[in-house]
Amino acid sequence: MICAYKFLMRPTVGQQVALGEMLRDHCSLYNGALQERRDAYRHVSKTSVKYGQQSAQLKDIRAFDPERQGRWSFSSEQATLRRLDKAFAAFFRRAKAGETPGYPRFRGVNWFDTVDFPKDGDGCRWDATPYDPVTRVRFQGVGNVKVNQHRPVVGKVKTVSVKREGERWYVILTVEQAQPEPLPATGSVAGIDMGIASFLTTSDGEHVPSPRHSRKAAAKLKAAQQALARFPRVRRDKRTKNHRRAVERVAALHRKVRRQRLDHAHKTALDLVREHDFIAHEDLKIRNMSKAPAPKPDPEQPGSFLPNGAAAKAGLNRSISDAGWGVFLTILTAKAESAGREVIAVDPRNTSRRCPECGYTAKENRPTQEKFHCVSCGHQAHADTVGALNVLRAGLVRREAAPV
User: Which of 21, 89, 258, 335 is surrounded by the fewest CB atoms within 10 Å?
Assistant: First the structure.
């Protein structure tokens, strides 16, 4: 199985400058390759340029510009071209599926934060010594950079990536590991219902409260963003020290919320995986759930619009984003796989409207957000617990129906 490790790097001042130049030059390569594809399609009879053609030009590009392109790893530049190729593949896939395609865009220096090295030992070298809190990773054109290795790396390192987050630098390793031993069986199964008031509710009736990290930090974020808004918009290299400090303050608050959300997701998923052999959850389409409502034109007054509940929906969308359902479900699936547990996603439709006692399904069964009262048999329970029970039953049915 493939696992990822993320460690904080401690570069010197000179190494920080070199890492920034590496990002800048790879960003320039990405934008140049994108421009070539655009020009070839627009001006040369709709000709499509592929990755193989652009990769074949790298040798000449490095020879023409040894100061900026020739000093970095050939493999990392190939990875940047593959990144662009994947962006175009995703664009064509979305266009073919009838979705909003989103044509690949040029990247500013501030929006290009990752450089990939496809193979350890080719342009980079991870220190493979036994666990050491302070180890090093070597990058071509940068040198040996100190790494705060907070846990041992188990397995063979396959790829290495450099990532900038604000003023910090991280190294990300993908490692090939043997499948770990599964956790002892508990004989327990559970269904979970994701929500806003409670982060999740299990079929056993347990409620995990929603941490609402973003809402708790809203006051500090508002003050920091107001302080940042007082500065005029200027280029990054023209910012004053106070301006850069204000930018970093906003970024630091967002990073803290993100870390808190990840920490909560990891701990909650770990508890579920340790306690249950089988977990069923709703197959949520989070992107569709957080869409803004469509405007409603007023037929009597052209150019005017009727109320469409956009303000209330915006508040709901913020709560959905703050909960981080997608991140949690991804982490839950990964932890379950490594622990030998089974996770199944089921159709979420009517899970909170179907009576678990008699099976009657109706909108009237849920008079309020929390209350469930079946109008057919009179069964009463918490609506989220009912949803979790129905999710569990649907998951068990799907598991039994799955081909062996």
Answer: 89
